[in-house]
Each structure stands twice: as C-alpha cells, then as structure tokens.
Amino acid sequence: MLKKVGALTAATALTTLLLQAPGEAAPAEAAFVGGSGTSALGTGFGFAVFPVEGEGGKPTGFALFRNTAEGVEERLGGVTCVNVVGNAAIFKIKDVGSEGGTHRQFFVRDNGPTGEGEPTDELSAYGVPSNEAPDKCDKPGDDVKGKAIKEGDVVITAGEE
C-alpha cells in the first residue's frame, strides 16, 4: 500500500512538471508541499501540491487518502487551494469520491527529516468538509496541530524568495 501511495506522489509530481507549457522555464526552486506514508490513524496518503506565487494563480496538484479499516474508502482529488506558512500548510481538495465533490482541507507540518528515529511530521484532516469558498484555505498557525505520522515523510519548501 505504502509503495502504491509513494508511486502516486511521484507520478503526480512528474505529470505536473511534464504538463508545463512548452518553452516555459521551470523555476530554479519552486514552492512545494508533498508527502507519502501512513498517518497515525493508519490512513495511507500521498500528495503533491504546487503553490502558485502571486495573486490570482491557482495551485496544481493531487492528493489521495485511503483507510478501509476506519471506513474511509478513499478521499482523492485535485488541489483547489493551498496556504503555506513556514513549515506548515493547509490545502484543500475537491473529493471526487464523495457525492457532489465535497471540498476537504488537510493540515501538514514538516518537522524535518525523519533520520533514524520515529517520524515527526504531522498530518490531519482540518475543518468541516464544505463547498463554501473552495479556492480559499485557512492559514496554518502555531495553534494548529496535526497528529504525528506513523511512517513516511512530509516535505514543504518555500521556493526562492
């Protein structure tokens, strides 16, 4: 399962880069929010989110969450917004697996490399699923906490300043 989710993240990242407009140069270091692994609740996850700099731009990316033991068959869809502050991000997807394509937010925090110890990165569903303001994500703050993931990694890069 974890290998499938990791492969999905890599495939999503590669597809997004390959769909870049011809002749358009890739930024030297673009902002990125991504990860794959297993959450504290046993949910397999994989996501790749590419924020867009400046006003009016729409992020690109995709996310998948699956946990049949908890009754969550799948939550998957394209990213409709992202808000990154330091090492934390909140992103929203349009869940194509739900009736009507409900928008759901997720919180992630990159607490550095796992190394030899337990993973320290955080992940959690955030807020109430809603179709109100699908292109507006909440701002992650120090008061927002996720649960430490069981295995895997979350990576957040801010890109060039």
Question: How would you characterize the overall build of this protein?
Answer:
- It is built from one helix and nine strands.
- 11% of the residues lie in helices and 42% in strands.
- It is mostly beta strands and 161 residues long.
- A nine-stranded antiparallel beta sheet has the order 8-7-6-5-4-3-2-1-9, with helices on one face.
- The chain is globular.
- The termini are far apart.
- Residues 109-144 are annotated as: Disordered.
**What is the terminal-to-terminal distance?**
37 Å
Secondary-structure class: mainly beta
* Helix proportion: 10-25%
> Which segments are poorly predicted (pLDDT under 50) over 5 or more consecutive residues?
1-28
The average pLDDT is 78
How many β-strand runs? 9
Lateral strand order in the biggest sheet: 8-7-6-5-4-3-2-1-9
Beta-strand percentage range: 35-45%
- What gyration radius follows from the Cα positions, in whole Å? 15 Å
The helix/strand order is HEEEEEEEEE
The gross shape turns out to be globular
Determine the number of helices (DSSP H or I, runs of at least 4 residues): 1
